Amino acid sequence: MSAYLNSKSRFLVLGRAGMDFYADPPGTEAEHAAQFTTALGGSSGNIAAGIARHCLSVDLLTCVSDDSIGRFVLNQLAHYGIGTDHVRVLGGESRTSLAVTETRIENTQNTLYRNNASDLLMSVDQVLAVPFADYEALIVTGTALAGNPSREATLRAMEHARRAGALVVIDLDYRPYSWPSALEAAEIYRAAIETADFVVGNDDEFAVVANGTHADGQNLARELGSGDKVIIYKLGERGSVVYSAEGSFETGIFPVEALKPMGAGDAFMASLMASLANRHSLQDAVLRGSAAAAMVVSKFGCAPAMPTPPELETFLSNHSAPQS
């Protein structure tokens, strides 16, 4: 299974990009920090940065505020080589997301400021202006579905990308605080999944979509994978299971000394997609995604820690294949 994408693929990533404030030095609690180090943040911003680090063409579809935080994000996107033609700058009182976080593995504090979030104001008109035929893949993070107008715009983007022949990928990225209820999230996620070719989520997220237990979520993942979708069901320290019409397989994780719990999912998605574009099989692409996830949690920051191809190859050559 290696024909999903190619090395000339153009990616469009839809969703949140923001500013991360990391308490510095690593290990410091935010309330005791004498200084903070900034980085590009947000799940979609991180995924786009990870794809760009693989020297692939990637654009972002989102909104940022017309202020210093929004301009920081735009400058960071340019730094990573991420296209901003579809990033809308909004005046008024909306704000780009700001996360104050820590580089420590236990009792990690992550304070996220998303009051009147700019990215959730993405409109259908903004989506309709995107030439989806120019892209081979659309990657959506589920946070964009949490509220309107972004919800409607995201569902329309997925429909238009699918009609244009692009691979449609969704990372469920369920954040309970962003949703009125889990029942509403389940309904909207199911609608989005219908349009997707690839669905990536963890056991908690699939349980929400199934309106049930982890067992219900895994049964749903298995059922979805028996059709025309590829389902990547993540199990944390137990690795992941892939379900597809061509069969299922398990992949473990690479044991590393983690510095922080954040960024693994974004790194996994970025290297998964980049590896498919570089003609790796699905099984190899998942393995490489797992390696990238391990690399990012063992380094400072999320976007800055995304591996380049040589860094990923070095890691893989120095680490044994993980056990599931």
Task: Write a brief structural summary.
With 324 residues, the chain is an alpha/beta fold. It has helices at residues 43-53, 68-80, 124-128, 150-163, 182-195, 203-209, 214-225, 264-277, 282-297, 309-318, and strands at 10-14, 18-24, 35-41, 57-65, 83-90, 98-101, 110-113, 137-141, 167-171, 198-202, 230-234, 240-244, 247-251. A hairpin with a 2-residue loop joins strand 12 and strand 13 (247-251).
Task: Walk me through the topology.
Elements: E1 10-14, E2 18-24, E3 35-41, H1 43-53, E4 57-65, H2 68-80, E5 83-90, E6 98-101, E7 110-113, H3 124-128, E8 137-141, H4 150-163, E9 167-171, H5 182-195, E10 198-202, H6 203-209, H7 214-225, E11 230-234, E12 240-244, E13 247-251, H8 264-277, H9 282-297, H10 309-318
Parallel strand pairs: 1-4, 1-8, 2-6, 4-5, 8-9, 9-10, 10-11
Antiparallel strand pairs: 2-3, 6-7, 11-12, 12-13
Roughly what is the average pLDDT, rounded to an integer? 95
Helix content: 25-40%
Q: Biggest β-sheet, characterized?
A: 9 strands, mixed
Shape assignment? globular
By DSSP, the count of extended strands is 13
What is the tally of helical segments? Answer: 10
Major beta sheet, strand line-up: 5-4-1-8-9-10-11-12-13
Radius of gyration: 18 Å
Low-confidence stretches: none
Structural class call reads alpha/beta
- The helix/strand series, from N terminus to C terminus, equals EEEHEHEEEHEHEHEHHEEEHHH
The portion of residues forming beta strands comes to 15-25%
Report how far apart the termini are. 21 Å
